[in-house]
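Figure-free illustration: sequence to structure, shown twice.
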Amino acid sequence: MFSALRQGALLYILEKGESPHFKIGTVDSVTQPRPKYNTFNPSIPFNANMETIVDIKVNVDNEKKDYIGVPSNASIHGYGNVVISESRDAMVSEVNSMLQTSKQIVDSVDYHKKVIESCEEMLKQLDPDYAKQQERDNAIDSLKSEVGSLKNDMTKILNLLTKAGAN
């Protein structure tokens, strides 16, 4: 639990994104748990099932980082593309989860390519405007390729003429 962290304890920090990586920081300080919501409700006894949070200051690679509003009873917490944990095992589980998700996505690429092809064929049959648009896009792509090929050929011809004229 984050509320049990003390100065000098390790905090694992996972930065997700295109190139995920993790760092290990040392805790500088942890605030006392406080209510997450500062509203008073007289029908709820004080501290009865009240969610609490803490603020954690961490030193990571000689840089100070603040993690504000961390659930005090949790051992892992996410901030968008950043996940922090006071437990190495919880971080291992998080990384394994990321790995499995990415493997599933990569394994499903061929399936989704076939779905795209099938959907495009169905749309061509169902929507004549879509079929015309696809046909036009294919024709434009073909023309672009041919023009690019002609430019390369012209460059080669000019180079040969330049070399022949220099000799």
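We now fold a second protein in the same way, so the two outputs can be compared directly.
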Amino acid sequence: MAKLLKNQIVLVNLINFNKVNGISYEPSTRKRIEGFKAVLDSRGITNTLRYSYGSDIKGACGQLASIS
């Protein structure tokens, strides 16, 4: 991602994926997210670590995929 976004004017929002029943993806650990953020920071890519709201109503990042 850092290579793709080099010399681009961007803001990357880092939002953790939430666990959803029936989907095989897993949320990243805080350590892994911070490591990814550090790579973006070191390459000069503007980014924001966001808190994921809405898990209590199954509307957080990734959870809408479970609605059919």
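Summary for the second example: The beta strands are 12-15, 47-50.
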